[in-house]
Amino acid sequence: MALTPFEIAKKQIDIAAEKIGLDLNLAKYLKRVERALIVTIPVRMDDGSIEIFEGYRVHHSTVRGPGKGGIRYSPEVNLDEVKALATWMTWKCSLLGLPLGGAKGGVCVDPRKLSKNELERLTRRYTSEIINIIGPDIDIPAPDVNTNAQVMAWIMDTYSMNKGRSIPGVVTGKPIEIGGSVGREPATGMGLFFVLEALCEKLSIDLKSQNIVIQGSGNVGGTIAGLLYNEGCKVMAISDISGALYFSEGLEINKLLEWTQQGKYLKDYKDKRYKLITNEELLALECDILIPAALENQITYKNADNIKCKIILEGANGPVTPEADRILFEKGIRVLPDILANAGGVCVSYFEYVQDIRAYFWELDRINKELKKIILRAFEEVYMLSKERKISLRTAAYIIAVSRIARAIELRGIFP
């Protein structure tokens, strides 16, 4: 039976704990979340009826600072998934050396079925329900799957109205006009590009000559697709929830992104050269670099043997299961793990948080320069440890991240 996302997150902790000889008590501690809140969200719909939705906010660890993590709106959202995502956020922040902890939130809803007014009412009620466990010194949410700057603006406004003053630092990923940061929206994709470029340099690979396959065309998948296409790479396939488009000679990514940004599906794009394929077919395509940038558990022990690439760049959180990881490692496929590869988003979220607290805002050049410095420093540490101990990049990343959290717990002690 397939492992749940949180079971996978715990198994990854066990792997790292064994490698570093972590105290069993600490390992047991790290496999639990600090707190998990389940809330009921009644929403009056436009037709006058009332629908009830369920929402979550989870703090995995705040030993190194306030919680940090996105909020996603999806029919698939459940507590187990949110706990796993919060745990992965802890490792991301730790690996990058940010003074933040891991948190995550979500609402089980299909936002495509809601009007804008219904979505606003849902967001404001959800914010009111979790208001006691978020805040600039407690937990700072951000956008994630199916949420955006507008949703963050509603959260900030709801929180601020309840507190009686404007508090932009309660969320990141806001519109620039109300305290958001330049460079935040493309940050995850930008971080992916920096890390991929660095690995290609280490392996003496010409990035421009690589054939790329991308699962997902949202904020993360779309951004990295655009960056690679503009770099001169051949992006052979890209997908959305409707399916994937494939063309061996390379897709015209700029036109496809323009199409999807209008809210249209890839399956409806008309170009006789492009073949519509399934998600399973996309993952099995022969290519140089595969970028899963959709959801977790996409590459498992069932399809890992079908993967035909040299590098996997994890744009999504948890797209490769531990069993698949082992198979890919034995096949010689290098996996740039999520907690390193897609950490650009939380890194620039941290910059936005700092700017809000100080009420002093940075230029885009400074944002990208600081992002590149921090993420490449983490990459260098992970790559060198991986090479030195002949372990996967993921195991190396987890050893570093878990060791830092464990040390913080040791220094603080267990209250009381």
Give an overview of the whole structure.
The protein has 416 residues and is α/β, with parallel strands linked by helices. Among the domains are: 133 residues, Rossmann fold (3-Layer(aba) Sandwich); 153 residues, NAD(P)-binding Rossmann-like Domain (Rossmann fold), CATH 3.40.50. Helix content is 45%, strand content 17%. The strands form two sheets. A seven-stranded mixed beta sheet has the order 9-8-7-6-10-11-12, with helices on both faces. The chain has a five-stranded mixed beta sheet with strand order 1-2-4-3-5.
Q: Please write the string of helix (H) and strand (E) elements.
A: HHEEEHEHEHHEHEEHEHEEHEHHHH
The computed structural class is: alpha/beta
Task: Based on the coordinates given, report the CATH architecture of the domain at 187-339.
Answer: 3-Layer(aba) Sandwich
> Which radius of gyration do the C-alpha atoms yield?
21 Å
| Strand order in the sheet with the most strands | 9-8-7-6-10-11-12
| Assigned CATH class of the domain at 187-339 | Alpha Beta
Number of E-type strands? 12
Main β sheet profile: 7 strands, mixed
Shape by Cα distribution: globular
Low-confidence stretches: none
Share of β-strand residues: 15-25%
What is the CATH topology classification name of the domain at 187-339?
Rossmann fold
CATH homologous superfamily assignment of the domain at 187-339: NAD(P)-binding Rossmann-like Domain
User: What percent of the residues sit in helical stretches (DSSP H or I)?
Assistant: 40-55%
The N- and C-terminal alpha carbons lie at a distance of 40 Å
Number of helices: 14
Query: Mean pLDDT, nearest integer?
Result: 96
